[in-house]
Amino acid sequence: MGENYKNLKTAELSNWTGKAYIGQRKHVQTLQSFEELSAPGIYVLISEIEDSFQKKIYIGEADEVNKRISEHFKNKDWWSDFVVFISKDANLTKSHVRYLERELYEIAKRNQTTIETVNANTPPGSKLPLSDCDDMKDFNENIIFVLSNLGIIDFTKKKVTEVKEDMDQERNKDTVFYLNVPGAKGEETREAMLVVEDGAYRLLKGSYIRKELVNSFSSHNYVRLRNQLEQEDFFILSNSGSFFELAKDVEFTSPSAAAAVVRNCSMNGRREWKLKSGMSLDEYENRSSIENLI
């Protein structure tokens, strides 16, 4: 059975009761031999998306997580990898894993630029005592830490936070970056807005999005992402036929990805996003790095 274990990995963190099993479809049968996996757990099925910067994932939970993965092996052929999370002290209950499933799903849905979730429905979650909620939030933060730091899934937004309606009024206008968005011939140029928060690049609600597709961009990796955002109603009609407006903030891992979605063409976002002073994002980040070293 040694060959079946090849490349099957586990991950643990100090002072954490959780444990992750990280493997591929070929390891599914092997999972059935681990007694600790015949217990409540949360899991993620993962597939690389060809010509995309996203990963397709399915998030689930089960009373006996190894058996559920086996069922998915028979019924779902799109996924290539999995990650299973359990508790080493067997203290996770059905209610706990249902809570974790909903929390992780909500975070994934806030990461449309790196993740495509294929769950047919939003997980129902569960009601827990306040003390258990705090414990599960800590558990879920460790799940995100493992997935992010092992390079399994790229989360631009690590935590679930409520977005305030007046957030744009609270932002420091001195650190908003702008990108000119050309319209049709003779039409006024509009602007898109970007801020850098916690290592992610947030394209702001109200930004203008160019409608016209540049031919050279039609086969670019970011086209699929742009189409997905449009299909999921992130774009709304503006008062001009040449533009959409962004209906809500979107986070990107790359300023070039945000620029490409806005302008419908490939460009160096670090050079093109600029403060009102004219300083480019590249210059701003380099200056910030130097200041941190002083």
UniProtKB/TrEMBL annotation:
InterPro entries in alphabetical order: DUF4357, GIY-YIG_endonuc, GIY-YIG_endonuc_sf
| Any single Pfam family the record assigns to this protein | DUF4357
Which intervals of the chain form a coiled coil?
Answer: none
| GIY-YIG domain: residues covered | 38-115
Q: Which domain of life is it from?
A: Bacteria
The identity of this protein, by name, is GIY-YIG nuclease family protein
Species of provenance = Paenibacillus agilis
